[in-house]
Amino acid sequence: MSLFESPLYKDSLKLLEDAGSVMGLDPNILERLKYPKRALQVAVPIRLDDGTVKTFQGYRVQHNMTLGPGKGGIRFHPKVDLSETAALAMLMTFKCALVGLPLGGAKGGICVDPNELSRQELQSLTRRYTTEINMIVGPSIDIPAPDIGTDGQTMAWFMDTYSQLKGYTVPGVVTGKPITIGGSLGRAEATGKGVAYCVNFAAEKLGMKVGKGMTVAIHGFGKVGIPAAQDLRDQGCTIVAVSDVSGAIYSKDGIDVDKAVEWVNQRKFLKDLPGVELISNEDLLALDVDVLIPAAIDGVLTKKNADNVKAKIIAEGANGPLTKDAIDIITAKGSFLIPDILCNAGGVIVSYFEWVQGLQNFFWGLDEINAKLHSILKDAFDNVYECSLEYKVDMKKAAFIRAFRRLERAMRLRGLFPS
Ligand code: NAD
After folding, report:
1. CA–CA distances in Å: residue 341 to residues 97, 163, 182, 308, 374
2. Rounded to two decimals, what is the model's pTM?
3. Which of 107, 193, 223, 312 is catalytic?
4. CA of 89 to the centre of ligand 1 (A)
């Protein structure tokens, strides 16, 4: 697939052009932001448990590094390709700029279904992939993190492989590591917690109360969806439905979130959890709830199903879960959209904290981390909201405009090399 072919890349370009035109973005800056700075495609051959060799396709894309080293997750998923990875890297550039981090945008991944590999095969895959991309990552170059299908264990293997190649331990090469080997308190739940903070900020603007009586549906019950569910449940909300690739579960009186987490930890998938109604992912998206959190994958709400959405607040926990058409439909209906580059920025913010702590070998307490996370997200949310009023645009465009303002200043100051 060529760079521009994926729906997510096309949509991201369109959003870039639209928001750029509303704010009068310098056309020379716009021209540079349309393309990733660097894209590496690698073959990742591994020996499977049955003795045969299988080769997977891997990628690492760095979109823009004006503000600092590249930052972005590593995804293990069958849909991973160059174009989608490049689009996700672009969104990381805008996300880091929006929330004021000294980081650029990157993304990586392997086209693989991790559920079909054993633990040993996954370790081989991660170590070989690390070896193949090691020349373009590092604490001052590009710092990966977990994304769909990867976790703290993946980051531990990545860090260990990179450190073996260097000959000394390099904790700052990845974030999202387990605490024992230099991870940060609060990182695992940071993205979901950030989503919950943003739901609170949005509710405040809309005069809604987060707590008893507020209903929530969450599409995607992974590293983002689970902590978001736990946080909003702890605030008194009723989590009426959650879902994963196997389908969705529904209970009018509320899902027992802890029981669902335990079930998934033991059996991988939500389906067959007793005591709840099994519905489809499509049904979940159309539930009459106060808050809908698409926290699985991109492109789940499109022009085909966006009109079915009834939620008052849509919090984009995933990257690009709504296509551009879906955003237009939903905002025209009056729903309040919390855009991905704001809503799920909690992960990269605490990743940034982890990187800083690792470079200093000095670790912070959880209260300090959560307070700093809250303060950064609150400022970013208020700035985006004000920008949406100033330009009379939806929150998605406003978030892009805010990000572009910072990038434009930085890119102009640094200039174009060679001049
Ligand atoms: P994950 O692998 O931990 O969980 C993904 C969940 O989505 C799983 O429950 C999976 O079964 C479900 N899912 C996957 N494909 C699906 C489909 N087609 N239909 C329904 N459900 C599906 O991944 P994650 O880390 O929670 O990431 C989810 C999204 O959030 C991604 O878009 C990712 O880029 C974004 N994100 C993640 C982080 C992070 O810190 N993990 C940070 C920012 C953004």
Report:
1. 9, 31, 26, 24, 15
2. 0.97
3. 107
4. 16
